[in-house]
Amino acid sequence: MDTRNTPDFVNWLRNSSPYIRAHRGRTFVVLLPGQALLEDSLASLAQDLTLLTHLGVRLVLVHDIHAQLQQRLDTLGHQLPQSNGMPVTDDTSLGLIREICGAARLEIEAVFSSGMATSAGAGPGLRLVSGNMITARPVGMRDGVDHQHSGELRRVDADTIRAQLDLGAMVVLSPVGYSATGELFYLDAGEVATGVAMALRADKLLLLTEGNTPVDTQGQGLEVLTPTEAEQTAASPSCPDELRQRLTDAVHACRGGVRRAHLINRHHDGALLQELYSRDGIGTLVTHDEYDAVRTATVDDIGGILRLITPLESEGVLVPRSREQLELLVDDFVVMERDGMVVACASLHEFSEAEAGEIACVAVHPDYRSNNRGEVLLQMLELRARRRGLRQLFALTTRTTHWFREQGYEPARLEDLPVQRQALYNYQRRSRVLIKPLER
Ligand SMILES: CC(C)(COP(=O)(O)OP(=O)(O)OC[C@H]1O[C@@H](n2cnc3c(N)ncnc32)[C@H](O)[C@@H]1OP(=O)(O)O)[C@@H](O)C(=O)NCCC(=O)NCCS
Description:
With 440 residues, this protein is an alpha/beta fold. The protein has 2 domains: 8-287, 3-Layer(aba) Sandwich (Carbamate kinase), CATH 3.40.1160.10; 293-437, Aminopeptidase (3-Layer(aba) Sandwich). It has 14 helices and 23 strands.
Protein backbone atom coordinates (compact mmCIF):
# COMPACT_ATOMS: atom_id res chain seq x y z
CA MET A 1 0.00 0.00 0.00
CA ASP A 2 1.30 3.46 -0.91
CA THR A 3 1.08 5.58 2.25
CA ARG A 4 3.06 8.55 0.89
CA ASN A 5 -0.02 10.69 0.44
CA THR A 6 -1.79 9.60 3.59
CA PRO A 7 -2.73 12.72 5.55
CA ASP A 8 -0.67 13.19 8.73
CA PHE A 9 -3.76 13.03 10.85
CA VAL A 10 -4.67 9.56 9.56
CA ASN A 11 -1.23 8.27 10.54
CA TRP A 12 -1.47 10.06 13.86
CA LEU A 13 -4.83 8.51 14.61
CA ARG A 14 -3.61 5.05 13.63
CA ASN A 15 -0.52 5.39 15.80
CA SER A 16 -2.57 6.58 18.75
CA SER A 17 -4.78 3.48 18.67
CA PRO A 18 -2.67 1.42 21.16
CA TYR A 19 -2.75 4.33 23.59
CA ILE A 20 -6.49 4.81 23.26
CA ARG A 21 -6.92 1.13 24.08
CA ALA A 22 -4.44 1.28 26.95
CA HIS A 23 -6.09 4.31 28.61
CA ARG A 24 -9.75 3.35 28.18
CA GLY A 25 -11.40 2.76 31.55
CA ARG A 26 -8.33 4.04 33.44
CA THR A 27 -8.51 6.62 36.20
CA PHE A 28 -6.34 9.72 35.93
CA VAL A 29 -6.09 12.52 38.48
CA VAL A 30 -5.12 15.91 37.00
CA LEU A 31 -3.65 18.79 38.98
CA LEU A 32 -4.40 22.17 37.40
CA PRO A 33 -2.34 25.22 38.47
CA GLY A 34 -4.48 28.17 39.62
CA GLN A 35 -2.92 30.43 36.98
CA ALA A 36 -4.58 28.32 34.27
CA LEU A 37 -8.00 29.48 35.50
CA LEU A 38 -7.03 33.08 34.76
CA GLU A 39 -6.13 32.50 31.12
CA ASP A 40 -7.93 31.94 27.82
CA SER A 41 -5.96 28.71 27.29
CA LEU A 42 -8.31 27.09 29.82
CA ALA A 43 -10.82 26.58 26.99
CA SER A 44 -8.47 24.37 24.94
CA LEU A 45 -7.42 22.47 28.05
CA ALA A 46 -11.10 21.84 28.85
CA GLN A 47 -11.59 20.61 25.31
CA ASP A 48 -8.68 18.17 25.67
CA LEU A 49 -9.94 16.91 29.03
CA THR A 50 -13.41 16.45 27.55
CA LEU A 51 -11.84 14.48 24.70
CA LEU A 52 -10.07 12.26 27.23
CA THR A 53 -13.39 11.39 28.81
CA HIS A 54 -14.84 10.63 25.35
CA LEU A 55 -11.93 8.23 24.92
CA GLY A 56 -13.03 6.42 28.06
CA VAL A 57 -10.68 7.98 30.64
CA ARG A 58 -12.13 8.51 34.13
CA LEU A 59 -11.01 11.93 35.32
CA VAL A 60 -10.67 13.72 38.62
CA LEU A 61 -9.60 17.37 38.32
CA VAL A 62 -7.99 19.08 41.31
CA HIS A 63 -7.53 22.81 40.82
CA ASP A 64 -5.06 24.96 42.70
CA ILE A 65 -5.85 28.55 43.70
CA HIS A 66 -2.41 29.74 44.66
CA ALA A 67 -2.14 32.39 41.90
CA GLN A 68 -5.60 33.84 42.59
CA LEU A 69 -5.03 33.96 46.32
CA GLN A 70 -1.70 35.73 45.86
CA GLN A 71 -3.37 38.29 43.55
CA ARG A 72 -6.12 39.02 46.08
CA LEU A 73 -3.70 39.19 49.00
CA ASP A 74 -1.47 41.63 47.06
CA THR A 75 -4.49 43.85 46.32
CA LEU A 76 -5.38 43.94 50.01
CA GLY A 77 -1.77 44.36 51.08
CA HIS A 78 -2.27 41.28 53.25
CA GLN A 79 0.27 38.48 53.82
CA LEU A 80 -0.09 34.71 54.08
CA PRO A 81 2.88 33.91 56.30
CA GLN A 82 4.67 30.56 55.98
CA SER A 83 5.86 28.48 58.86
CA ASN A 84 7.38 25.00 58.65
CA GLY A 85 6.88 25.16 54.88
CA MET A 86 3.12 25.59 55.31
CA PRO A 87 0.90 28.67 55.09
CA VAL A 88 -0.64 30.13 58.21
CA THR A 89 -4.21 30.74 57.06
CA ASP A 90 -5.90 33.44 59.12
CA ASP A 91 -9.58 34.49 59.00
CA THR A 92 -9.03 37.08 56.24
CA SER A 93 -7.18 34.56 54.02
CA LEU A 94 -9.84 31.90 54.65
CA GLY A 95 -12.52 34.38 53.57
CA LEU A 96 -10.65 34.94 50.31
CA ILE A 97 -10.13 31.18 49.84
CA ARG A 98 -13.90 30.58 50.14
CA GLU A 99 -14.60 33.20 47.48
CA ILE A 100 -11.83 32.04 45.16
CA CYS A 101 -12.79 28.35 45.35
CA GLY A 102 -16.44 29.18 44.69
CA ALA A 103 -15.52 31.33 41.70
CA ALA A 104 -13.04 28.75 40.42
CA ARG A 105 -15.62 25.98 40.44
CA LEU A 106 -18.13 28.17 38.60
CA GLU A 107 -15.44 29.13 36.08
CA ILE A 108 -14.56 25.48 35.50
CA GLU A 109 -18.22 24.51 35.11
CA ALA A 110 -18.73 27.34 32.65
CA VAL A 111 -15.75 26.52 30.48
CA PHE A 112 -16.61 22.81 30.40
CA SER A 113 -20.17 23.71 29.41
CA SER A 114 -18.92 25.78 26.49
CA GLY A 115 -16.43 23.01 25.69
CA MET A 116 -19.38 20.66 25.33
CA ALA A 117 -20.99 22.95 22.82
CA THR A 118 -17.91 23.32 20.62
CA SER A 119 -16.25 19.94 20.85
CA ALA A 120 -18.87 17.39 21.67
CA GLY A 121 -21.69 18.86 19.63
CA ALA A 122 -25.20 17.74 20.37
CA GLY A 123 -26.00 15.05 22.88
CA PRO A 124 -25.19 14.63 26.50
CA GLY A 125 -21.96 16.33 27.43
CA LEU A 126 -19.53 15.95 30.27
CA ARG A 127 -21.08 16.29 33.72
CA LEU A 128 -19.01 17.84 36.49
CA VAL A 129 -19.50 16.90 40.12
CA SER A 130 -18.00 18.56 43.19
CA GLY A 131 -18.65 18.03 46.88
CA ASN A 132 -17.42 17.30 50.36
CA MET A 133 -15.31 14.32 49.42
CA ILE A 134 -12.19 15.40 51.29
CA THR A 135 -11.93 15.25 55.07
CA ALA A 136 -9.25 17.46 56.60
CA ARG A 137 -7.66 17.97 59.98
CA PRO A 138 -5.94 21.09 61.25
CA VAL A 139 -2.17 21.42 60.91
CA GLY A 140 -2.44 22.86 64.41
CA MET A 141 0.41 24.17 66.50
CA ARG A 142 3.92 23.58 65.14
CA ASP A 143 7.02 25.04 66.81
CA GLY A 144 4.77 27.37 68.74
CA VAL A 145 3.00 28.66 65.60
CA ASP A 146 -0.76 28.12 65.28
CA HIS A 147 -1.46 27.37 61.60
CA GLN A 148 -5.10 28.34 62.15
CA HIS A 149 -7.19 27.36 59.09
CA SER A 150 -4.39 25.48 57.30
CA GLY A 151 -5.19 21.80 57.15
CA GLU A 152 -3.87 18.42 56.12
CA LEU A 153 -5.63 15.73 54.13
CA ARG A 154 -7.19 13.21 56.49
CA ARG A 155 -9.40 11.02 54.33
CA VAL A 156 -10.64 10.79 50.77
CA ASP A 157 -14.15 9.49 50.14
CA ALA A 158 -12.94 7.22 47.36
CA ASP A 159 -16.26 5.31 47.13
CA THR A 160 -18.24 8.46 46.34
CA ILE A 161 -15.66 9.62 43.80
CA ARG A 162 -15.67 6.19 42.14
CA ALA A 163 -19.47 6.16 42.06
CA GLN A 164 -19.47 9.50 40.23
CA LEU A 165 -16.81 8.30 37.80
CA ASP A 166 -18.89 5.17 37.18
CA LEU A 167 -21.77 7.46 36.18
CA GLY A 168 -19.51 9.13 33.62
CA ALA A 169 -18.98 12.38 35.52
CA MET A 170 -15.72 14.23 35.98
CA VAL A 171 -15.08 14.99 39.64
CA VAL A 172 -13.75 18.49 40.39
CA LEU A 173 -12.06 19.11 43.72
CA SER A 174 -10.78 22.31 45.31
CA PRO A 175 -7.84 22.55 47.72
CA VAL A 176 -10.09 22.62 50.76
CA GLY A 177 -11.39 20.00 53.15
CA TYR A 178 -13.91 19.77 55.95
CA SER A 179 -13.24 18.50 59.44
CA ALA A 180 -15.52 16.24 61.46
CA THR A 181 -16.48 19.38 63.41
CA GLY A 182 -17.66 21.12 60.24
CA GLU A 183 -14.75 23.52 59.90
CA LEU A 184 -13.19 24.43 56.55
CA PHE A 185 -9.44 24.04 56.05
CA TYR A 186 -7.13 25.25 53.29
CA LEU A 187 -5.10 22.36 51.85
CA ASP A 188 -2.16 22.07 49.54
CA ALA A 189 -3.58 21.25 46.08
CA GLY A 190 -0.68 18.91 45.31
CA GLU A 191 -1.38 17.00 48.51
CA VAL A 192 -5.06 16.73 47.57
CA ALA A 193 -4.27 15.47 44.04
CA THR A 194 -1.72 12.98 45.34
CA GLY A 195 -3.96 11.78 48.17
CA VAL A 196 -6.91 11.33 45.82
CA ALA A 197 -4.76 9.47 43.27
CA MET A 198 -3.52 7.15 46.01
CA ALA A 199 -6.96 6.58 47.53
CA LEU A 200 -8.39 5.71 44.10
CA ARG A 201 -5.30 3.65 43.16
CA ALA A 202 -5.33 5.83 40.05
CA ASP A 203 -3.40 4.72 37.01
CA LYS A 204 -1.86 8.14 36.50
CA LEU A 205 -1.32 11.42 38.27
CA LEU A 206 -1.01 14.19 35.67
CA LEU A 207 0.66 17.24 37.17
CA LEU A 208 0.28 20.24 34.89
CA THR A 209 3.09 22.72 35.49
CA GLU A 210 4.01 26.27 34.60
CA GLY A 211 6.84 24.96 32.42
CA ASN A 212 9.61 24.01 34.82
CA THR A 213 11.06 20.71 33.68
CA PRO A 214 13.79 18.60 35.26
CA VAL A 215 17.14 18.69 33.48
CA ASP A 216 20.37 16.76 33.95
CA THR A 217 23.77 18.35 34.65
CA GLN A 218 24.21 19.04 30.90
CA GLY A 219 20.88 20.86 30.76
CA GLN A 220 19.17 18.04 28.83
CA GLY A 221 15.51 17.42 29.70
CA LEU A 222 14.90 14.29 31.75
CA GLU A 223 12.12 12.22 30.27
CA VAL A 224 11.92 9.33 32.72
CA LEU A 225 12.82 9.39 36.38
CA THR A 226 12.58 6.79 39.06
CA PRO A 227 11.12 8.09 42.33
CA THR A 228 14.62 8.04 43.81
CA GLU A 229 15.99 10.13 40.93
CA ALA A 230 13.01 12.49 41.19
CA GLU A 231 13.72 12.89 44.87
CA GLN A 232 17.37 13.70 44.17
CA THR A 233 16.39 16.23 41.49
CA ALA A 234 13.94 17.88 43.90
CA ALA A 235 16.65 18.10 46.57
CA SER A 236 19.00 20.06 44.31
CA PRO A 237 19.34 23.70 45.44
CA SER A 238 18.90 24.83 41.82
CA CYS A 239 15.48 23.13 41.50
CA PRO A 240 12.74 25.80 41.13
CA ASP A 241 10.10 25.72 43.89
CA GLU A 242 7.20 24.67 41.66
CA LEU A 243 9.22 21.82 40.16
CA ARG A 244 10.33 20.70 43.62
CA GLN A 245 6.71 20.56 44.78
CA ARG A 246 5.52 18.65 41.74
CA LEU A 247 8.40 16.17 41.84
CA THR A 248 7.68 15.60 45.52
CA ASP A 249 4.00 14.98 44.69
CA ALA A 250 5.05 12.53 41.97
CA VAL A 251 7.35 10.65 44.35
CA HIS A 252 4.63 10.39 47.03
CA ALA A 253 2.11 9.19 44.50
CA CYS A 254 4.41 6.55 43.01
CA ARG A 255 5.40 5.27 46.42
CA GLY A 256 1.75 5.27 47.45
CA GLY A 257 0.73 2.89 44.66
CA VAL A 258 0.08 5.17 41.65
CA ARG A 259 1.82 3.57 38.71
CA ARG A 260 2.87 6.67 36.86
CA ALA A 261 3.08 10.39 37.51
CA HIS A 262 3.67 12.79 34.64
CA LEU A 263 4.86 16.40 34.82
CA ILE A 264 3.44 18.21 31.81
CA ASN A 265 3.96 21.82 30.73
CA ARG A 266 0.45 23.26 30.47
CA HIS A 267 1.67 26.10 28.21
CA HIS A 268 2.29 23.64 25.40
CA ASP A 269 -1.00 23.49 23.47
CA GLY A 270 -2.29 19.91 23.39
CA ALA A 271 0.42 18.75 25.83
CA LEU A 272 -1.89 16.29 27.59
CA LEU A 273 -2.89 14.61 24.35
CA GLN A 274 0.68 14.43 23.12
CA GLU A 275 1.89 12.96 26.40
CA LEU A 276 -0.86 10.37 26.57
CA TYR A 277 -1.55 9.42 22.97
CA SER A 278 1.78 9.56 21.17
CA ARG A 279 4.96 7.56 21.37
CA ASP A 280 7.04 10.60 22.05
CA GLY A 281 5.44 12.15 25.07
CA ILE A 282 6.65 15.61 25.93
CA GLY A 283 6.57 15.57 29.71
CA THR A 284 8.62 13.94 32.43
CA LEU A 285 7.48 10.54 33.62
CA VAL A 286 8.12 9.40 37.16
CA THR A 287 7.49 5.70 37.49
CA HIS A 288 7.58 3.58 40.61
CA ASP A 289 10.75 1.62 41.04
CA GLU A 290 10.33 0.38 44.55
CA TYR A 291 9.41 -3.15 43.58
CA ASP A 292 11.11 -3.42 40.21
CA ALA A 293 14.20 -1.25 40.46
CA VAL A 294 15.68 -0.58 37.03
CA ARG A 295 19.42 -0.26 37.27
CA THR A 296 22.61 -0.94 35.41
CA ALA A 297 23.59 -4.59 35.77
CA THR A 298 26.66 -5.69 37.69
CA VAL A 299 28.62 -8.95 37.52
CA ASP A 300 26.48 -10.19 40.41
CA ASP A 301 23.44 -10.11 38.10
CA ILE A 302 24.94 -12.37 35.44
CA GLY A 303 23.54 -15.53 37.04
CA GLY A 304 20.06 -13.96 37.16
CA ILE A 305 20.29 -12.73 33.56
CA LEU A 306 21.35 -16.19 32.40
CA ARG A 307 18.42 -17.81 34.23
CA LEU A 308 16.09 -15.36 32.50
CA ILE A 309 17.45 -15.63 28.96
CA THR A 310 18.56 -19.27 28.70
CA PRO A 311 15.00 -20.62 28.08
CA LEU A 312 14.52 -17.94 25.41
CA GLU A 313 17.83 -18.88 23.80
CA SER A 314 16.75 -22.54 23.72
CA GLU A 315 13.52 -21.51 21.98
CA GLY A 316 15.56 -19.56 19.43
CA VAL A 317 13.97 -16.26 20.47
CA LEU A 318 17.28 -14.77 21.65
CA VAL A 319 20.78 -15.26 20.28
CA PRO A 320 22.83 -17.41 22.71
CA ARG A 321 25.29 -15.51 24.91
CA SER A 322 27.92 -17.16 27.05
CA ARG A 323 28.70 -16.17 30.62
CA GLU A 324 32.04 -14.76 29.36
CA GLN A 325 30.30 -12.58 26.76
CA LEU A 326 27.89 -11.30 29.40
CA GLU A 327 30.77 -10.49 31.73
CA LEU A 328 32.42 -8.41 29.03
CA LEU A 329 29.21 -6.57 28.13
CA VAL A 330 27.60 -6.32 31.56
CA ASP A 331 27.76 -2.50 31.61
CA ASP A 332 25.49 -2.44 28.55
CA PHE A 333 22.71 -4.16 30.48
CA VAL A 334 19.91 -2.77 32.62
CA VAL A 335 17.94 -5.11 34.84
CA MET A 336 14.73 -5.03 36.84
CA GLU A 337 14.66 -6.89 40.09
CA ARG A 338 11.83 -8.17 42.21
CA ASP A 339 12.45 -9.81 45.55
CA GLY A 340 16.09 -10.20 44.63
CA MET A 341 15.33 -11.95 41.34
CA VAL A 342 16.17 -10.49 37.93
CA VAL A 343 12.74 -10.38 36.25
CA ALA A 344 13.67 -8.35 33.19
CA CYS A 345 16.74 -7.23 31.30
CA ALA A 346 17.77 -5.38 28.15
CA SER A 347 21.00 -4.07 26.70
CA LEU A 348 22.20 -1.09 24.71
CA HIS A 349 25.34 -1.63 22.71
CA GLU A 350 26.86 1.53 21.36
CA PHE A 351 28.30 2.02 17.87
CA SER A 352 29.80 5.40 18.63
CA GLU A 353 31.22 6.20 15.19
CA ALA A 354 27.79 5.72 13.63
CA GLU A 355 26.15 7.54 16.59
CA ALA A 356 23.84 4.55 16.87
CA GLY A 357 22.96 1.98 19.51
CA GLU A 358 21.66 -1.58 19.31
CA ILE A 359 18.89 -2.63 21.66
CA ALA A 360 19.28 -6.33 22.33
CA CYS A 361 18.48 -9.12 24.72
CA VAL A 362 15.17 -7.59 25.83
CA ALA A 363 13.58 -10.19 28.06
CA VAL A 364 10.85 -10.12 30.67
CA HIS A 365 10.16 -13.19 32.82
CA PRO A 366 6.92 -14.83 31.57
CA ASP A 367 5.20 -14.28 34.96
CA TYR A 368 5.83 -10.55 34.79
CA ARG A 369 4.88 -9.72 31.20
CA SER A 370 2.23 -7.23 29.98
CA ASN A 371 2.87 -4.80 32.79
CA ASN A 372 4.91 -2.35 30.74
CA ARG A 373 8.22 -3.63 32.07
CA GLY A 374 9.51 -4.13 28.54
CA GLU A 375 8.41 -0.61 27.63
CA VAL A 376 10.03 0.89 30.74
CA LEU A 377 13.32 -0.90 29.99
CA LEU A 378 13.30 0.51 26.46
CA GLN A 379 12.57 3.99 27.81
CA MET A 380 15.50 3.73 30.19
CA LEU A 381 17.85 2.66 27.41
CA GLU A 382 16.51 5.36 25.13
CA LEU A 383 17.23 7.94 27.80
CA ARG A 384 20.73 6.53 28.18
CA ALA A 385 21.22 6.70 24.40
CA ARG A 386 20.06 10.32 24.25
CA ARG A 387 22.37 11.27 27.07
CA ARG A 388 25.25 9.73 25.12
CA GLY A 389 24.30 11.79 22.07
CA LEU A 390 23.23 8.85 19.90
CA ARG A 391 21.04 9.66 16.92
CA GLN A 392 19.34 6.34 16.39
CA LEU A 393 18.52 3.05 18.02
CA PHE A 394 18.09 -0.20 16.17
CA ALA A 395 17.02 -3.73 17.01
CA LEU A 396 17.24 -7.04 15.17
CA THR A 397 14.49 -9.48 15.94
CA THR A 398 12.85 -12.56 14.48
CA ARG A 399 9.59 -12.65 16.46
CA THR A 400 9.11 -9.35 18.20
CA THR A 401 8.79 -6.96 15.26
CA HIS A 402 5.31 -5.83 16.20
CA TRP A 403 6.20 -5.14 19.79
CA PHE A 404 9.13 -2.96 18.68
CA ARG A 405 6.86 -1.18 16.19
CA GLU A 406 4.50 -0.35 19.04
CA GLN A 407 7.49 1.19 20.79
CA GLY A 408 8.16 3.54 17.87
CA TYR A 409 10.58 1.45 15.78
CA GLU A 410 10.16 1.29 11.99
CA PRO A 411 11.19 -1.48 9.60
CA ALA A 412 14.51 -0.70 7.92
CA ARG A 413 17.11 -2.33 5.65
CA LEU A 414 20.32 -4.06 6.60
CA GLU A 415 22.23 -1.31 4.78
CA ASP A 416 20.76 1.23 7.24
CA LEU A 417 22.78 -0.33 10.09
CA PRO A 418 26.30 0.72 11.07
CA VAL A 419 28.78 -1.00 8.72
CA GLN A 420 30.38 -2.93 11.60
CA ARG A 421 26.99 -4.37 12.54
CA GLN A 422 26.15 -5.30 8.96
CA ALA A 423 29.30 -7.43 8.91
CA LEU A 424 27.99 -9.41 11.91
CA TYR A 425 24.54 -10.04 10.43
CA ASN A 426 23.49 -13.70 10.67
CA TYR A 427 21.94 -14.58 7.30
CA GLN A 428 20.59 -17.89 8.62
CA ARG A 429 18.63 -16.19 11.39
CA ARG A 430 17.21 -13.62 8.95
CA SER A 431 16.28 -11.18 11.71
CA ARG A 432 14.29 -8.15 10.75
CA VAL A 433 15.88 -4.73 11.18
CA LEU A 434 14.01 -1.99 13.03
CA ILE A 435 15.17 1.56 13.61
CA LYS A 436 14.04 4.40 15.83
CA PRO A 437 15.55 7.82 15.14
CA LEU A 438 16.20 9.91 18.25
CA GLU A 439 15.32 13.51 17.60
CA ARG A 440 17.39 16.11 19.36
C1 LIG B 1 8.76 -8.69 24.22
C2 LIG B 1 8.78 -8.60 25.72
C3 LIG B 1 10.16 -8.08 26.14
C4 LIG B 1 7.70 -7.61 26.18
O1 LIG B 1 7.77 -7.45 27.59
P1 LIG B 1 6.52 -6.91 28.44
O2 LIG B 1 7.00 -6.45 29.75
O3 LIG B 1 5.45 -7.94 28.42
O4 LIG B 1 6.13 -5.68 27.54
P2 LIG B 1 5.01 -4.60 27.72
O5 LIG B 1 4.21 -4.87 28.95
O6 LIG B 1 5.66 -3.29 27.59
O7 LIG B 1 4.12 -4.90 26.43
C5 LIG B 1 3.31 -6.02 26.41
C6 LIG B 1 2.45 -6.04 25.15
O8 LIG B 1 3.29 -6.42 24.05
C7 LIG B 1 2.68 -7.55 23.41
N1 LIG B 1 3.74 -8.41 22.91
C8 LIG B 1 4.58 -9.18 23.61
N2 LIG B 1 5.37 -9.87 22.75
C9 LIG B 1 4.99 -9.53 21.51
C10 LIG B 1 5.41 -9.90 20.21
N3 LIG B 1 6.37 -10.81 20.00
N4 LIG B 1 4.81 -9.30 19.16
C11 LIG B 1 3.82 -8.41 19.33
N5 LIG B 1 3.36 -8.01 20.54
C12 LIG B 1 3.95 -8.57 21.61
C13 LIG B 1 1.90 -8.24 24.51
O9 LIG B 1 0.88 -9.04 23.97
C14 LIG B 1 1.37 -7.07 25.28
O10 LIG B 1 0.22 -6.54 24.66
P3 LIG B 1 -1.15 -6.38 25.50
O11 LIG B 1 -0.86 -5.30 26.51
O12 LIG B 1 -2.13 -5.98 24.46
O13 LIG B 1 -1.39 -7.70 26.13
C15 LIG B 1 8.46 -9.96 26.42
O14 LIG B 1 7.29 -10.47 25.86
C16 LIG B 1 9.57 -11.00 26.25
O15 LIG B 1 10.44 -11.12 27.09
N6 LIG B 1 9.51 -11.75 25.15
C17 LIG B 1 10.51 -12.77 24.88
C18 LIG B 1 11.85 -12.17 24.49
C19 LIG B 1 11.82 -11.36 23.23
O16 LIG B 1 11.11 -11.65 22.29
N7 LIG B 1 12.66 -10.30 23.20
C20 LIG B 1 12.78 -9.38 22.11
C21 LIG B 1 13.91 -9.74 21.25
S1 LIG B 1 15.26 -8.64 21.54
